[in-house]
Amino acid sequence: MLKKYSYLFSLFLIFSLSLEAKSLLYRVSSEGGTVYILGSIHLAKAELYPLDKKIRGAYAKSDVLAVELDPSSHEAMTAIQNTVSSRGTYPAGKSLSTELSAKTYEALVSYMSKSGTPVSMVQGMRPWLVMLQLSVTEMQRLGYSPDLGIDKHFLDQAKAEMKTVVSLETAQEQMGLISKDDKAFQDKLLFYTLESMHEMEPMLDDMFRHWQRGDEEAIDKIISIPVVTDPDLKDVYDALIIKRNYKMTQKIEGFLRTNKNYFVVIGSGHVVGKEGIVSLLKEKGYRVTQE
Fold first, then answer.
1. CB neighbours (10 Å) of residue 75?
2. How far apart are CA 30 and CA 34, in angstroms?
3. Enclosing domain of residue 69
4. Which of 56, 83, 170, 183 is 20 to 30 A removed from 23 (C-alpha atoms)?
5. Strand order through the sheet with 34-40
6. What is the pTM of this model?
7. Kindly report the CA angle at 182 between 246 and 275, in degrees rounded to 5?
8. What is the per-residue pLDDT across 65-118, written as a single tens digit (0 to 9) for each?
9. Across all residues in the chain, what is the average pLDDT?
10. Calpha distance 147→204 (Å, rounded)
11. Has residue 127 been placed in a domain?
Protein backbone atom coordinates (compact mmCIF):
# COMPACT_ATOMS: atom_id res chain seq x y z
CA MET A 1 0.00 0.00 0.00
CA LEU A 2 2.85 2.41 0.74
CA LYS A 3 4.08 2.08 -2.83
CA LYS A 4 0.69 3.12 -4.17
CA TYR A 5 0.58 6.25 -2.03
CA SER A 6 3.47 7.81 -3.91
CA TYR A 7 1.40 7.97 -7.10
CA LEU A 8 -1.53 9.79 -5.53
CA PHE A 9 -0.48 13.24 -4.42
CA SER A 10 -3.51 14.89 -6.00
CA LEU A 11 -6.81 13.92 -7.56
CA PHE A 12 -6.09 16.65 -10.10
CA LEU A 13 -3.62 14.34 -11.84
CA ILE A 14 -5.62 11.17 -12.44
CA PHE A 15 -7.25 10.24 -15.74
CA SER A 16 -8.11 7.32 -18.06
CA LEU A 17 -7.37 6.35 -21.66
CA SER A 18 -8.34 3.91 -24.41
CA LEU A 19 -6.37 1.74 -26.81
CA GLU A 20 -6.16 4.21 -29.71
CA ALA A 21 -5.67 7.32 -27.57
CA LYS A 22 -3.12 9.87 -28.64
CA SER A 23 -1.30 11.84 -26.02
CA LEU A 24 -0.03 15.15 -24.79
CA LEU A 25 3.42 14.70 -26.29
CA TYR A 26 5.64 17.74 -26.91
CA ARG A 27 9.05 18.23 -28.47
CA VAL A 28 11.11 21.00 -26.88
CA SER A 29 14.25 22.03 -28.74
CA SER A 30 17.31 24.06 -27.91
CA GLU A 31 20.71 24.45 -29.57
CA GLY A 32 22.09 21.80 -27.24
CA GLY A 33 19.50 19.03 -27.10
CA THR A 34 15.92 17.87 -27.29
CA VAL A 35 13.43 17.12 -24.55
CA TYR A 36 10.23 15.20 -25.19
CA ILE A 37 7.55 15.90 -22.59
CA LEU A 38 4.70 13.47 -22.20
CA GLY A 39 1.61 14.36 -20.18
CA SER A 40 1.21 11.20 -18.17
CA ILE A 41 -1.53 9.15 -16.59
CA HIS A 42 -0.42 7.94 -13.17
CA LEU A 43 -3.14 5.27 -12.94
CA ALA A 44 -4.61 3.45 -15.91
CA LYS A 45 -6.23 0.32 -17.30
CA ALA A 46 -4.73 -2.44 -19.41
CA GLU A 47 -6.44 -1.21 -22.58
CA LEU A 48 -4.12 1.80 -22.55
CA TYR A 49 -1.44 -0.34 -24.17
CA PRO A 50 0.26 -0.47 -26.59
CA LEU A 51 1.01 3.23 -26.51
CA ASP A 52 0.88 5.38 -29.63
CA LYS A 53 3.88 4.90 -31.92
CA LYS A 54 4.86 8.59 -31.59
CA ILE A 55 5.29 8.08 -27.85
CA ARG A 56 7.28 4.92 -28.31
CA GLY A 57 9.43 6.59 -30.97
CA ALA A 58 10.22 9.60 -28.79
CA TYR A 59 11.23 7.32 -25.94
CA ALA A 60 13.44 5.21 -28.23
CA LYS A 61 15.28 8.32 -29.47
CA SER A 62 16.01 9.52 -25.94
CA ASP A 63 19.13 8.87 -23.91
CA VAL A 64 17.57 9.56 -20.50
CA LEU A 65 14.18 8.97 -18.91
CA ALA A 66 13.05 11.64 -16.45
CA VAL A 67 10.04 11.13 -14.17
CA GLU A 68 8.57 13.08 -11.28
CA LEU A 69 9.74 10.36 -8.93
CA ASP A 70 10.83 6.74 -9.05
CA PRO A 71 8.67 5.30 -6.24
CA SER A 72 10.39 1.94 -6.38
CA SER A 73 13.77 3.33 -5.37
CA HIS A 74 15.10 2.60 -1.91
CA GLU A 75 15.22 6.31 -1.13
CA ALA A 76 11.59 6.81 -2.10
CA MET A 77 10.28 3.77 -0.27
CA THR A 78 12.17 4.75 2.88
CA ALA A 79 10.87 8.33 2.75
CA ILE A 80 7.30 7.18 2.22
CA GLN A 81 7.47 4.67 5.06
CA ASN A 82 9.08 7.16 7.41
CA THR A 83 6.50 9.84 6.62
CA VAL A 84 3.56 7.51 7.10
CA SER A 85 5.05 6.34 10.41
CA SER A 86 5.91 9.80 11.75
CA ARG A 87 3.20 12.00 10.27
CA GLY A 88 0.39 9.64 9.35
CA THR A 89 -1.45 9.40 12.65
CA TYR A 90 -2.50 11.69 15.47
CA PRO A 91 -0.98 11.55 18.95
CA ALA A 92 -3.12 10.42 21.87
CA GLY A 93 -5.98 12.80 22.56
CA LYS A 94 -6.40 13.96 18.96
CA SER A 95 -8.36 12.49 16.06
CA LEU A 96 -10.24 13.51 12.97
CA SER A 97 -13.30 14.27 15.08
CA THR A 98 -11.35 16.82 17.13
CA GLU A 99 -9.12 18.30 14.40
CA LEU A 100 -11.32 18.59 11.31
CA SER A 101 -13.79 21.41 10.73
CA ALA A 102 -17.42 20.46 11.31
CA LYS A 103 -18.11 20.67 7.56
CA THR A 104 -15.30 18.31 6.61
CA TYR A 105 -15.98 15.85 9.40
CA GLU A 106 -19.66 15.65 8.49
CA ALA A 107 -18.67 15.00 4.86
CA LEU A 108 -16.31 12.24 5.99
CA VAL A 109 -18.92 10.55 8.19
CA SER A 110 -21.45 10.71 5.35
CA TYR A 111 -19.03 9.24 2.81
CA MET A 112 -17.86 6.46 5.09
CA SER A 113 -21.44 5.59 5.97
CA LYS A 114 -22.41 5.30 2.30
CA SER A 115 -19.38 3.13 1.59
CA GLY A 116 -20.27 0.83 4.47
CA THR A 117 -17.07 1.50 6.40
CA PRO A 118 -17.15 2.77 9.99
CA VAL A 119 -15.41 6.11 10.44
CA SER A 120 -13.58 4.57 13.39
CA MET A 121 -11.38 2.77 10.82
CA VAL A 122 -9.71 6.06 9.89
CA GLN A 123 -10.34 8.13 13.02
CA GLY A 124 -6.69 8.13 14.08
CA MET A 125 -5.26 8.95 10.64
CA ARG A 126 -4.30 12.46 9.62
CA PRO A 127 -6.32 13.96 6.72
CA TRP A 128 -3.64 13.51 4.05
CA LEU A 129 -3.38 9.79 4.75
CA VAL A 130 -7.17 9.41 4.71
CA MET A 131 -7.24 11.24 1.39
CA LEU A 132 -4.73 8.84 -0.12
CA GLN A 133 -6.44 5.78 1.35
CA LEU A 134 -9.86 6.75 0.00
CA SER A 135 -8.42 7.72 -3.38
CA VAL A 136 -6.62 4.41 -3.82
CA THR A 137 -9.71 2.47 -2.86
CA GLU A 138 -12.00 4.39 -5.20
CA MET A 139 -9.61 4.24 -8.14
CA GLN A 140 -9.20 0.51 -7.70
CA ARG A 141 -12.97 0.12 -7.50
CA LEU A 142 -13.21 1.86 -10.88
CA GLY A 143 -10.58 -0.46 -12.32
CA TYR A 144 -7.52 1.81 -12.35
CA SER A 145 -4.12 0.76 -11.12
CA PRO A 146 -0.80 2.53 -10.49
CA ASP A 147 0.91 -0.61 -11.76
CA LEU A 148 -0.46 0.25 -15.23
CA GLY A 149 0.46 3.93 -15.14
CA ILE A 150 2.62 5.39 -17.90
CA ASP A 151 5.30 6.40 -15.40
CA LYS A 152 5.74 2.84 -14.20
CA HIS A 153 5.58 1.48 -17.75
CA PHE A 154 8.56 3.54 -18.85
CA LEU A 155 10.43 3.07 -15.60
CA ASP A 156 10.21 -0.69 -16.01
CA GLN A 157 11.31 -0.45 -19.63
CA ALA A 158 14.21 1.88 -18.88
CA LYS A 159 15.50 -0.35 -16.10
CA ALA A 160 15.28 -3.42 -18.32
CA GLU A 161 17.26 -1.59 -21.02
CA MET A 162 19.74 -0.10 -18.54
CA LYS A 163 18.71 3.40 -19.68
CA THR A 164 19.59 6.26 -17.33
CA VAL A 165 16.69 7.37 -15.10
CA VAL A 166 16.51 10.68 -13.23
CA SER A 167 13.84 12.15 -10.95
CA LEU A 168 12.56 15.72 -11.08
CA GLU A 169 11.59 15.64 -7.41
CA THR A 170 12.57 13.75 -4.30
CA ALA A 171 10.31 11.60 -2.18
CA GLN A 172 11.05 13.87 0.77
CA GLU A 173 9.76 16.85 -1.23
CA GLN A 174 6.58 15.10 -2.32
CA MET A 175 5.81 13.59 1.05
CA GLY A 176 6.62 16.83 2.81
CA LEU A 177 4.19 18.66 0.55
CA ILE A 178 1.23 16.39 1.03
CA SER A 179 1.78 15.78 4.75
CA LYS A 180 2.71 19.30 5.82
CA ASP A 181 1.60 20.37 9.28
CA ASP A 182 -0.99 22.93 8.19
CA LYS A 183 -4.41 22.29 9.68
CA ALA A 184 -6.34 24.44 7.20
CA PHE A 185 -4.50 22.93 4.22
CA GLN A 186 -5.16 19.39 5.41
CA ASP A 187 -8.84 20.13 6.05
CA LYS A 188 -9.31 21.54 2.54
CA LEU A 189 -7.42 18.65 0.96
CA LEU A 190 -9.68 16.05 2.55
CA PHE A 191 -12.87 18.04 1.98
CA TYR A 192 -12.20 18.40 -1.74
CA THR A 193 -11.41 14.71 -2.00
CA LEU A 194 -14.70 13.77 -0.36
CA GLU A 195 -16.66 16.22 -2.49
CA SER A 196 -15.04 14.85 -5.65
CA MET A 197 -15.63 11.16 -5.07
CA HIS A 198 -19.11 11.03 -6.59
CA GLU A 199 -17.86 12.94 -9.67
CA MET A 200 -14.73 10.90 -10.27
CA GLU A 201 -16.08 8.51 -12.88
CA PRO A 202 -17.73 11.14 -15.16
CA MET A 203 -14.66 13.35 -14.73
CA LEU A 204 -12.44 10.53 -15.95
CA ASP A 205 -14.71 10.02 -18.96
CA ASP A 206 -14.42 13.71 -19.88
CA MET A 207 -10.67 13.68 -19.40
CA PHE A 208 -10.43 10.62 -21.64
CA ARG A 209 -12.20 12.32 -24.55
CA HIS A 210 -10.15 15.51 -24.32
CA TRP A 211 -6.87 13.63 -23.89
CA GLN A 212 -7.62 11.68 -27.05
CA ARG A 213 -7.87 14.93 -28.99
CA GLY A 214 -4.88 16.51 -27.28
CA ASP A 215 -7.20 19.31 -26.19
CA GLU A 216 -5.04 21.25 -23.75
CA GLU A 217 -7.63 23.93 -22.98
CA ALA A 218 -10.36 21.44 -22.12
CA ILE A 219 -8.04 19.45 -19.86
CA ASP A 220 -6.85 22.60 -18.11
CA LYS A 221 -10.46 23.67 -17.57
CA ILE A 222 -11.32 20.40 -15.85
CA ILE A 223 -8.18 20.48 -13.71
CA SER A 224 -8.95 24.07 -12.67
CA ILE A 225 -12.56 23.36 -11.67
CA PRO A 226 -11.79 23.09 -7.93
CA VAL A 227 -10.31 26.59 -7.79
CA VAL A 228 -13.02 28.10 -9.99
CA THR A 229 -15.84 26.63 -7.91
CA ASP A 230 -14.15 27.22 -4.56
CA PRO A 231 -11.48 29.97 -4.41
CA ASP A 232 -10.58 28.79 -0.90
CA LEU A 233 -8.83 25.85 -2.53
CA LYS A 234 -6.35 28.08 -4.37
CA ASP A 235 -3.57 27.56 -1.83
CA VAL A 236 -3.96 23.78 -2.14
CA TYR A 237 -3.94 23.99 -5.95
CA ASP A 238 -0.92 26.29 -5.97
CA ALA A 239 1.02 23.98 -3.66
CA LEU A 240 0.17 20.75 -5.46
CA ILE A 241 0.38 22.03 -9.03
CA ILE A 242 1.69 25.53 -9.75
CA LYS A 243 4.73 25.79 -7.48
CA ARG A 244 5.90 22.37 -8.57
CA ASN A 245 5.53 23.40 -12.24
CA TYR A 246 8.07 26.18 -11.83
CA LYS A 247 10.56 23.93 -10.06
CA MET A 248 10.26 21.12 -12.62
CA THR A 249 10.57 23.62 -15.47
CA GLN A 250 13.95 24.69 -14.08
CA LYS A 251 15.08 21.06 -14.06
CA ILE A 252 13.97 20.62 -17.68
CA GLU A 253 15.89 23.75 -18.69
CA GLY A 254 18.97 22.04 -17.32
CA PHE A 255 18.29 19.06 -19.59
CA LEU A 256 18.04 21.40 -22.59
CA ARG A 257 21.52 22.72 -21.93
CA THR A 258 23.03 19.27 -22.45
CA ASN A 259 23.74 17.44 -25.70
CA LYS A 260 21.46 14.55 -24.77
CA ASN A 261 17.85 13.74 -25.58
CA TYR A 262 15.49 13.40 -22.61
CA PHE A 263 12.09 11.74 -22.42
CA VAL A 264 10.21 13.42 -19.57
CA VAL A 265 7.06 11.84 -18.15
CA ILE A 266 5.03 14.23 -16.00
CA GLY A 267 1.44 14.14 -14.79
CA SER A 268 -0.75 15.85 -17.41
CA GLY A 269 -2.04 18.30 -14.83
CA HIS A 270 1.45 19.83 -14.75
CA VAL A 271 1.79 20.09 -18.52
CA VAL A 272 -1.23 22.18 -19.55
CA GLY A 273 -2.46 25.66 -18.61
CA LYS A 274 -1.04 29.19 -18.50
CA GLU A 275 1.34 28.18 -15.74
CA GLY A 276 1.85 24.65 -17.01
CA ILE A 277 5.33 23.45 -17.87
CA VAL A 278 4.80 23.72 -21.64
CA SER A 279 3.66 27.35 -21.39
CA LEU A 280 6.51 28.22 -19.04
CA LEU A 281 9.05 26.80 -21.49
CA LYS A 282 7.48 28.74 -24.37
CA GLU A 283 7.70 31.94 -22.35
CA LYS A 284 11.41 31.30 -21.89
CA GLY A 285 11.87 31.20 -25.66
CA TYR A 286 12.19 27.48 -26.30
CA ARG A 287 10.76 25.95 -29.48
CA VAL A 288 7.85 23.74 -28.44
CA THR A 289 5.87 21.54 -30.83
CA GLN A 290 2.94 19.31 -29.92
CA GLU A 291 3.59 15.99 -31.63
1. 13
2. 6
3. 2-90+144-180+211-290
4. 170
5. 164-167, 64-67, 261-267, 34-40, 24-29, 287-290
6. 0.86
7. 20
8. 999 999 888 998 999 899 999 999 999 999 999 999 999 999 999 999 998 999
9. 86
10. 18
11. no
